[in-house]
Design goal:
- The chain has ten helices and 25 strands.
- The chain is an alpha/beta fold.
- It has two domains: 78 residues, Urease, subunit C, domain 1 (Roll), CATH 2.30.40; 298 residues, Metal-dependent hydrolases (TIM Barrel), CATH 3.20.20.
- The strands form six sheets. Strands 1, 2, 3, 4, 5, 23, 24 and 25 form an eight-stranded mixed β-sheet that branches.
- The longest helix has 17 residues.
- It is globular.
Amino acid sequence: MRKKIHNGKIITPYRIMPVGCVCIEDGKICEISEGDLPFADAEIIDAKGNYVSPGFIDLHTHGAGNSDFMDATVEACLQIAKMHAKYGTTGLYPTTLASTNEELFKTFEIYRQAKAKNTEGSAFLGFHLEGPYFAMNQKGAQDPRYICNPKPEHYMAILDATDDIKRWSIAPELEGSKEFAETLIKRGIMPAIAHSDAIYEEIVDAFDWGYTHVTHLYSCTSTVTRRSCFRYAGIIEAAYLIDGMTVEIIADGIHLPESLLKLIYKIKGPEKIALITDSMRAAGMPDGKSILGSLANGMEVLVEDGVAKLPDRTAFAGSVATADRLVRNMRQLAGVPLPETIQMITIIPARIMGIDKTKGSLAKGKDADVVIFDENINVKMTMIDGKIVYNENNKKR
């Protein structure tokens, strides 16, 4: 069916059109124009002067709506997709935690079933595996029972169980990480740096091996340390010094306060930053007790002050952000112009994952993944492949 979104401020890769329209046919963008265009036999969608943006792409999310991908039920997966779509996310990468292979295999199978049924929520773009190959000292809220070094007999069993893995985050200083990266790259999977105690020199080597992206910068990532009398830079400094390194940040204003959001933006610039939620099941839910990880094997946490915490409040235990909050914070806290903020949650994550030919911007021929929001980034409508999956007025279409 043909659709035309008109009377909106259109955010293109290069500028914001003060008043424009987007024409859609067969799930693709077929025309974008300032002012209005005749487009016969089309459903007309009035943006009412709000912003018309590419759909948000979340590279890293564990859950939302009181569901986690590792609950390993079709219902949980679909609930997560619906909840994130409500806040403007049109595509996401389901993210796992360190676990047994058996849990992963079950999660893979349920994902396949859920993807076939996911017609009302954010599109599933493939798995992001987080762990279990981590530095124990940087495990964060990951379960230490499953943390280990990458060994072929372990990771090959996982890789052979599914073709849906698109990214795998590990600590690249671990023995076997070079061979692991080579294996991933041969399969078209992106290796990423996470939960690591690596020093700068190790990250330089890892970058050459293919570890070109840092998972949730500042969270479980090493910084300057002393070894004997000498100081060594860590992952944070390496991410700044290596121009080609991309980073993702939890821009919830809590994991990273205003000062760090400004610093990262100042040094890396919008072209190397992706905004992520890294959300757990409590995203979109009220404060109170929740579970990090699966319902069966997860850990009880407390949600308050806009973040999940360990029960003793000694550390954060996960984000409860949604994509709209990330955009709002980068504008209001970090002072980033809206077009650049939108880049960091649309075209930049698309480029990082190699899907920018079809997603990430409002351009002719690309998938009609569109979100309409107001000046305060309150989402009014979310469209995926030309289908409206969320509408503020009637919640869904």
